[in-house]
Amino acid sequence: MDTIRFQCPRCATEVESTGDGYRCAKCEKTYPIVDGVPRFLERPIYWGEMDESEMNELVANAQKTSWREAVEYIYKSTPVLHQYIADGGRARFRLILDLDENSRVLDLGHGYGSLTIPIAKAVGQVVSVDAVPQRNKFLQIRAAQEGLSNVKVINGDVMRPPLAPGQFDAVILNGMLEWVAVAEPEGTPQEVQIRFLRNALSLLKEGGQVYIGIENRFGHWAWAGGADHSGLKYTSIMPKFMANWVVKAKARRNSYRTDFSKDSYRTYIYSSYGLRKMLEKAGFENVEVYTPYPTYNHVNSFLSIDDPTPYRYFIKSQFRAASAKSKLLRNTLLALMPIGAHKVWSNSYGVIGRKGAEKRANA
To answer: CA separation (Å) from 259 to 79, 105, 134, 138, 183?
Structure first.
């Protein structure tokens, strides 16, 4: 595997190793290696599903015992978070990507490593970037305890990864696209998201793929009153100007994964059509959209929205009971498929875009 090429986040010039860090010859900025992790962010930040003191405790417990025992400890208080961290099935999307034992994969926003670790067991190398030092440390511990030497953890800005272009066979953006405009105030949310996607495109080798896991703005969770990333009900299905007005009117500390008040609606999610158009605008080709069942965060299977055959089989198998209610639901869903209803009722999507029209050479 070739050496990873880093670049300066300030001036986008490739940096050189100094042994204990990296140095940019152009702007003379230096970046240290701290506890084995290259640190390209000047100021540490924290955000997450648990507060900072709880995250520090999780890291300390993982070091003392094991990452599994540390995560089991939080099960009683937050079982959903336990599953989110420990469920390796979240990375099943790797099965629909062109990956092999020689692939180099970039995981942007690696979190607790629940995607990095299972992917690393199937490819040549995973480079994982996150802005939160505690998450970097937890992933470093987790990879070491799993016996994985092919995981490279980096502290950096996911909007501007400190990596030279053209190095990766795949870039993973699982649960990331909807959040980037919160951290990046310059431009409309969609403009920020397109910049983010173009950055990801530049990091891919020719023929490489991006994978995006994201909620469907019109999914049945939204119509049923599930909270959007704004922390409010129904904002994803509103016109953007209306959602923006509602969030401004109700701005408060109310959102999952955030610890700040919102003064505008910036966590945009999309329909399958909107996702296709966005990826194409960013420069990706051969865009494929899948329904991950039951959701992109807990995947049992993937169904291509462009192939109705597996959908029909899925509906028949899920609603095969003899009750009148089951028959009515099954027949209604099957009857709506010819008009493309199966493309819009999903809770979430798994989306693949390719750099260039052809598969990479070693796929």
So the answer is: 21, 30, 16, 21, 12
Bridge pairing between strands 104-108 and 125-130: parallel
- For residue 255, pLDDT beyond 60: no
The DSSP annotation for 221-288 comes to HHHTT-B-TTSSBSGGGS-HHHHHHHHHHT-SS--TT--S--SS-----B-HHHHHHHHHHHT-EEEE
Q: Beta strand pairing status for 125-130 and 151-155?
A: parallel
Q: Are 170 and 97 in contact (CB under 8 A)?
A: yes
Give the range of the structural domain holding residue 227, as residue numbers without chain letter: 218-264
pLDDT for 259: 44
Q: Residue 213: which H helix or E strand, with range? A: strand 204-215
DSSP bridge pairs for 285:
354
The 10 Å CB-count burial string (b at 16+, else e) for 71-95 is beebeeeeeebbbbbbeeebbbbbe
Spatial CA neighbour of 235 closest among 213, 266, 211, 205: 266
The pTM of the whole model exceeds 0.85: yes
Q: Output the domain CATH number for residue 151.
A: 3.40.50.150
- What is the domain count for the chain? 3
Say if residue 190 is in the same domain as residue 224: no
Which of these, 2, 3, 28, lies nearest to 15 by C-alpha position?
Answer: 28
pLDDT in tens, 128-139: 999 999 999 999
In-domain check, residue 331: yes
More reliable by pLDDT, 253 or 25? 25
- Looking at the fold, whether 207 and 310 belong to one and the same domain comes out as no
Do residues 68 and 106 both lie within one domain?
A: yes
